[in-house]
């Protein structure tokens, strides 16, 4: 009887903790296991790498926020593979290259950046820190880089614009193509007036994919809301117009003088069509594994997209987000032809662990690690990061992949 009741209460405990945080029972990435708040106390762990932020960021959040940001669709294959795919690529350094005048700065779409790493759009940042997007701006404001504000931000476009004014940080605005185009245009005009320098339109979400873990957390509710679009427009995850085609990119292009970056592309043909429709640049992205589960990791999709874009307009740029957690990841993406990379979840973990200071530290770690990677690989500036320092070699890959 005693034993039975122990077994029963154990069962209840496991069952309940499963409901409370399904990532504890679906611990599908052993080396990225979710650390507990206890394990993440400053006396137990020093945040020395972006992987440390990945491990301890979630522990700093309450369960709904944690599940929201860790969320990925389906079996979470793409979420995992974005990171794993970087590990499958090897860097072969070039030695004795005089790297004493090493520079890691770059430029894109008329913007000079201190390093080719920016912040991806992530919704509802007030879930990660009370100051939300404003803390992210503050954390990045001493860097010449780019932050992409989410269409589903929890801070007004105008307030984010004001916070970045006079700082080194530049802003781009993510915008969806809504059924009601007036909603899209409202965002476009407000961002233009607030000093944003480009639009990033996400095209991989005709509907928002089902996030199992969030659905299982029965009491799932978010303690922050979307403030730049009417919640009734956003509706039940029905974000954009199901009838969208490449002509709608041309429409968006016709509505603004600012460049349009099309985000969410994973193959060469789509990249080509987006450019022909008016895109100034392409962002290779799979929505951080939150849309099509089981698709290509972004670093694996990149070569084909770069080859297709280069064939058409050699000067058009390609960006990447998804799975970037170290300087070597940044290096690999640049070697495969990305002009810049963007990080999403790491920014959120920085916010969760230390507000603006956490964001600044996370970005500093990534920058320093990229600098070190370049020095050891024998590259003195980003344009010297060449594909021939990676294995498997691109010509082999492109032989298999039909560009
Ligand atoms: C990097 O900075 C140096 C020094 O300010 C500048 O001369 C160079 O043009 C910059 N590189 C790029 C790619 O913008
Ligand atoms: C929700 O937000 C309010 C106001 O910012 C705060 O006082 C409260 O503690 C938050 N609740 C949770 C569960 O985070
Ligand atoms: C890169 O590292 C070198 C060597 O430590 C250092 O001199 C340089 O200032 C670093 N560059 C940046 C941008 O941090």
Automatic annotation (TrEMBL):
Keyword entries, A-Z: Flavoprotein, FMN, Oxidoreductase, Signal
MF annotations from Gene Ontology: (S)-2-hydroxy-acid oxidase activity; FMN binding
PROSITE patterns xref list: FMN_HYDROXY_ACID_DH_1, FMN_HYDROXY_ACID_DH_2
Recorded superkingdom: Eukaryota
Annotated catalytic residues: 287 (proton acceptor)
Protein name according to UniProt: (S)-2-hydroxy-acid oxidase
Positions annotated to bind FMN: 121-123, 150, 174, 202, 285, 321-325, 344-345
Residues that coordinate or bind glyoxylate: 68, 176, 263, 287, 290
Signal peptide boundaries: 1-22
GO cellular component term of the entry, any: peroxisomal matrix
Enzyme Commission number, as recorded: 1.1.3.15
Transmembrane segments: none
Keyword NADP attributed: no
The keyword Zinc appears for this protein: no
Cofactor: FMN
Reaction equations catalysed: 2-hydroxyoctanoate + O2 = 2-oxooctanoate + H2O2; a (2S)-2-hydroxycarboxylate + O2 = a 2-oxocarboxylate + H2O2
Pfam families: FMN_dh (PF01070)
Domain FMN hydroxy acid dehydrogenase: from-to ranges: 42-395
Family: Belongs to the FMN-dependent alpha-hydroxy acid dehydrogenase family.
InterPro entries assigned: Aldolase_TIM, Alpha-hydoxy_acid_DH_FMN, FMN-dep_DH, FMN_HAD, FMN_hydac_DH_AS
A biological process from GO: fatty acid alpha-oxidation
């Amino acid at each position: 009887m005693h034993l039975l009741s122990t077994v029963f209460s154990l069962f209840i405990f496991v069952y309940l903790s499963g409901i409370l945080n399904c990532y504890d029972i679906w611990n599908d990435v052993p080396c990225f296991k979710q650390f507990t708040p206890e394990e993440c106390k400053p006396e137990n762990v020093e945040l020395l790498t972006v992987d440390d932020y990945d491990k301890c960021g979630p522990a700093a959040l309450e369960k709904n926020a944690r599940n929201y940001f860790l969320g990925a669709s389906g079996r979470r294959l793409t979420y995992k593979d974005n990171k794993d795919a970087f590990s499958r690529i090897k860097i072969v350094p070039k030695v004795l290259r005089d790297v004493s005048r090493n520079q890691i700065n770059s430029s894109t779409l008329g913007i000079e950046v201190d390093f080719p790493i920016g912040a991806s759009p992530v919704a509802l940042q007030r879930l990660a820190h009370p100051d939300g997007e404003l803390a992210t701006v503050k954390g990045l404001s001493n860097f010449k880089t780019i932050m992409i504000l989410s269409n589903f931000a929890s801070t007004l476009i105008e307030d984010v614009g004001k916070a970045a004014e006079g700082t080194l940080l530049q802003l781009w605005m993510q915008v969806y193509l809504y059924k009601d185009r007036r909603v899209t245009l409202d965002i476009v005009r407000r961002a233009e007036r607030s000093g944003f320098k480009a639009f990033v339109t996400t095209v991989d979400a005709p509907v928002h994919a089902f996030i199992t873990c969030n659905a299982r957390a029965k009491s799932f509710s978010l303690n922050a809301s979307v403030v730049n679009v009417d919640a009734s427009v956003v509706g039940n995850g029905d974000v954009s117009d199901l009838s969208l085609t490449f002509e709608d990119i041309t429409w968006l292009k016709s509505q603004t003088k600012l460049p349009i970056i099309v985000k969410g592309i994973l193959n060469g043909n789509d990249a080509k069509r987006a450019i022909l429709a008016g895109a100034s640049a392409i962002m290779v992205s799979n929505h951080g594994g939150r849309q099509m589960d089981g698709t290509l990791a972004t670093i694996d999709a990149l070569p084909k997209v770069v080859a297709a874009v280069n064939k058409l307009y050699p000067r058009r740029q390609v960006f990447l987000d998804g799975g970037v957690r170290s300087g070597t990841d940044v290096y690999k993406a640049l070697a495969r032809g990305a002009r810049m990379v963007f990080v999403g979840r790491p920014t959120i973990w920085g916010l969760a662990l230390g507000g603006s200071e956490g964001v600044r530290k996370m970005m500093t770690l990534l920058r320093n690690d990229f600098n070190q990677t370049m020095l050891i690989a024998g590259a003195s500036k980003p344009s010297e990061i060449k594909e021939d320092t990676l294995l498997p070699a691109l010509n082999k890959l492109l032989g298999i992949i039909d560009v």
